[in-house]
Amino acid sequence: MKLHVINTGNFKLDGGAMFGVVPKTMWSKTNPADENNMCNWSMRCLLIEDGNRLILVDNGIGDKQDAKFFSHYYLHGYETLESSLKKAGFSTDDVTDMFLTHLHFDHCGGSIKNNAAKTGFETVFKNATYWSNQEHWEWATKPNPREKASFLKENIIPIQESGQLKFITGEDSKQLGEHISLSYMRGHTDAMMIPHILYKGKTLVFMADLLPSTGHIPLPYVMGYDTRPLLTMTEKEKFLNTAADNEYVLFLEHDSVNECCTLQRTEKGIRLKDTFSFEEYFGK
User: Fold this and answer.
1) Residue 102 exposure: Cα atoms within 13 Å on the Cβ side
2) H helices of the chain, where?
3) Given a cut of 90, is residue 170 above it in pLDDT?
4) pLDDT tens string 229-266
5) SS3 of 220, please?
6) DSSP the chain
């Protein structure tokens, strides 16, 4: 098995929305905001090369929305999904499995593109199985008013129409291989999947939106986007204790500075131990 970091670009979101009830005077120490109160976030994905399978975890925001949509998110950076795959030695056609932690647009927008005539949509990964789960799919395709703006039909429905969609069945599923297990989280959105990957003697956890950045480690630091923030705190507390005790390596999808981190117990609770790039920790 070999893992590759796939950077799909950066975007900006309102700092208050990203930290909920925590005052700006506190969260801005770790995530400084610009003059519009916007903080910089990455859309960092993970490519898993495992035997004859090439599994991509999440795929960023994509490029098919109009200028008005993108004007809200200040897309920037020189890296793209395609350029990062190419740097790793692959193309979108090589991906065999497209695993989606959940269907918010910044995690699954790269799944679908405009067709050549721009009269409809088609899958970006034409040879891949697209993985979601039945519970989350129902949640996303019949969205509540709070999340409706995050679940864009053009990112989701064409996956099903392509015939490439399959559902993960259960948390103990080995549908992604013997070295990958999943946990389900329901505070951010219903049935978000968090992959745990056994790699070089360590457990690497792809954090998705359970822990967007190192600045979100203290328990009250919960996104305003979460549908059930109190449940997020319960899920996060349980996970962080397990991660610290078992020395998990956390892979951070949205932290624009830190790719990975580890945790430790302190008198104030679970806190950051070390930060490092994926390559620094695991090597090339």
Assistant:
1) 29
2) 15-19, 24-27, 67-71, 81-87, 105-108, 134-141, 153-162, 229-245, 278-282
3) no
4) 999 999 999 999 999 999 999 999 999 999 999 999 99
5) coil
6) -EEEEEEEEEEEEEHHHHHTTS-HHHHTTTS---TTSEEEEEEEEEEEEETTEEEEE-----S-S-HHHHHTTT-B-S--HHHHHHHTT--GGG--EEE-S--SHHHHGGGEEE-TTSSSEEESSTTPEEEEEHHHHHHHHS--TTTTTTS-HHHHHHHHHHT-EEEE-STT--TT-TTEEEEEE-SSSTTEEEEEEEETTEEEEE-TTTS-SGGG-STT---TT-SSHHHHHHHHHHHHHHHHHTTPEEE-SSBSS-SEEEEEEETTEEEEEEEE-HHHHH--
- pLDDT (tens digit per residue) in 180-194: 999 999 999 999 999
The pLDDT assigned to 8 comes to 98
pLDDT at 4 over 90: yes
The identity of residue 34, as a single letter, is: D
